[in-house]
Design goal:
Helix 2 packs antiparallel against helix 5 and helix 2 packs across helix 6. With 524 residues, this protein is of the alpha/beta class. The N and C termini lie far apart (57 Å). 39% of the residues lie in helices and 18% in strands. The strands form 5 sheets. A 7-stranded mixed beta sheet has the order 14-15-16-13-12-17-18, with helices on both faces. The protein has a 6-stranded mixed beta sheet with strand order 9-8-7-10-11-19, with helices on both faces.
Length: 524
């Protein structure tokens, strides 16, 4: 078995300058319970975003890799789906234990490939993933997979082979959020992590191996979305596709999967608003919003990138937000004092910088904090300055599009109805927040949001509640029972009745009166 070399500190090297150390080279994929050589001729370089140095190279997975992985999952499906839920749950609890045992290893990997500060990676990225994994297992253990409905037995059973495609930003948490419910439901899985951050997925494959899941139940293949992702989604033996990613990727997956009429679950982008009503505690609301928009250097689909405040309080809100941002330390993610690490890649750095420059030149917005370019003193790495715009036009580019960086757009409003229109006035509908001195009023306004999740006066995330988006933020729900049901099919078995029953079948047609709507439907 190939064992992952966990990056410690890619900035340090004992090699001579004339002979730099070569990064680890991985040539295999986790398929059928073993590391399997890929036929890929091309390779992907995994880069440390803080130093811009290579961490490792991995195979650029091929359609053959996809086919081998899907066939391994399909072969393992009958046995895994037939395994009693309590036995599946017991095996998955070993996975939770493995995540706990290797939490520091995962944190180091996430720091290296994502750029997340180690403290945050351990406490939040890994800590939340462990909690989510445990919650998924217990949800499945308590779930009622069968119920009687009259004389029918309604059974919920595994949907089949699931292709789970996960992103780079909070990689372990968002992987666990798909894989554990799928496995608990009785599905077998092919996991495709982002090609930017595949090393945590190799470590996770080792955890699954140590938990002794049957071969083929979990498979992991690394590659690009255009090649490997498309091959997985199009594969005829894949029954369910679950993607967390960009709206562009969601459109592509929907189009490719439509040919096979596959079940598609999408968790996509967001342009989320934090609405501060006129009776709210401004300090509390602005502080929470800034903390949230800066989490993971602004690289989350849930970030509140729009702060809506009463027009007469905009200047006060902007001054508060700037003061809070000044307290954040940007720098080496391995430094315990660091709050904000780099963006994940050169492409991400260029994209965020371009949005900031557009904000400065388009639509009358005022740049009041930060701006394009690296922070002072940071000449290497994909670092960006936390930025605030005021007087943002809700219909401008920065008011409408997902920037995916530490950029806060402050939008003034004149009354509550206008504020709600602005909240709902984008193509997205994932997350939001509302702040008021009156909980009942805040809840009333939250009901008007066209979003899948709303935090009311700082309400915390609940892993038992459904999570997902409206509009172009996605299709379907994750977390809690809804997350489990995403990987289940429903079967109704019409059981014999003890007495008074009528046989229902082809003979029923003769008993249906002429012109009955039911007869018309049967003939259609």
């Amino acid at each position: 078995m190939t064992v992952l070399t966990v990056p410690q500190d890619s900035a340090a090297s004992t090699a001579e300058p004339s002979a730099p150390a070569l990064p680890p080279r991985y040539d295999d994929q986790w398929i059928g319970g073993r590391w399997t050589a890929s036929d890929a001729e091309s390779r992907l370089v995994v880069t440390d975003p803080g130093t811009e140095r290579p961490l490792a190279t991995v195979p650029a997975g091929t359609p053959r890799d996809a086919d081998l992985a899907v066939r391994a999952a399909a072969g393992a499906f009958p046995g895994w789906a037939a395994t009693p839920v309590r036995e599946r749950a017991a095996l998955l609890r070993r996975v939770v234990e493995g995540l706990e045992r290797r939490a520091e290893d995962f944190a180091r990997v996430i720091t290296a490939e994502v750029g997340a500060p180690t403290r945050m990676a351990l406490q939040t990225q890994v800590g939340l993933a462990v909690g989510m994994a445990a919650h998924c297992v217990e949800t499945a253990a308590a779930y009622d997979f069968e119920e009687r409905v009259g004389h029918s037995l309604v059974v919920r059973e595994a949907a089949g082979v699931a292709a789970c495609i996960t992103p780079w930003n909070v990689p372990l948490l968002l992987t666990v959020q798909k894989l554990l419910p799928a496995l608990a439901a009785g599905c077998t899985v092919v996991h495709k992590p982002s090609e930017l951050t595949p090393l945590h997925a190799r470590l996770l494959a080792e955890v699954f191996a140590e938990a002794d899941l049957p071969p083929g139940v979990v498979n992991m293949t690394v590659g690009t979305g255009d090649t490997l992702g498309t091959a997985l989604v199009a594969h005829p033996l894949v029954d369910v596709v679950s993607l967390t990613g960009s709206t562009r990727a969601g459109r592509r997956v929907s189009a490719v999967g439509a040919d096979g009429v596959k079940r598609i679950h999408l968790e996509l982008g967001g342009k989320n608003a934090s609405l501060v009503l006129d009776d709210a505690d401004l300090g509390t609301a602005v502080g929470a919003t800034v903390d949230q928009v800066l989490f993971n250097t602004g690289q989350t689909c849930l970030q509140w990138s729009r702060l809506l405040v009463p027009r007469e309080r905009q200047d006060e809100a902007v001054e508060l937000a700037g003061r809070i941002m000044d307290g954040y330390v940007t720098g080496d993610p391995r430094d315990p004092a660091t709050d904000l690490g780099p963006l994940v890649s050169a492409a991400a750095h260029a994209r965020v910088g371009e949005y900031i420059r557009r904000g400065e030149t388009e639509g009358g917005a005022r740049l009041v904090h930060g701006g394009a370019g690296r922070p002072d003193g940071l000449h290497t790495g994909h670092y960006v300055r936390p930025t605030i715009f005021a007087d943002v036009d809700p219909l401008s580019t920065i008011g409408q599009e997902e920037i995916f960086g530490p950029v806060l757009c402050v939008i003034p409003y004149d009354d509550e109805d206008q504020a709600v229109r602005i909240v709902n006035g984008t193509r997205y509908g994932l997350h939001g927040a509302v702040w008021s001195g009156d909980d009942a009023r805040a809840e009333r306004v939250a009901r008007r949001f066209r979003t899948g999740l709303v935090d009311v006066n700082g309400g915390s995330f609940n892993p038992a509640a459904p999570f997902g988006g409206f509009k172009q933020s996605g299709i379907g729900r994750e977390c809690g029972a809804a997350g489990l049901e995403a990987f289940l099919e429903t079967k109704s078995m019409q059981l014999p009745q003890a007495s008074g029953g009528q046989v229902v079948g082809p003979r029923l047609r003769a008993a249906v009166p002429a012109g009955d709507p039911g007869q018309e439907r049967n003939d259609a």
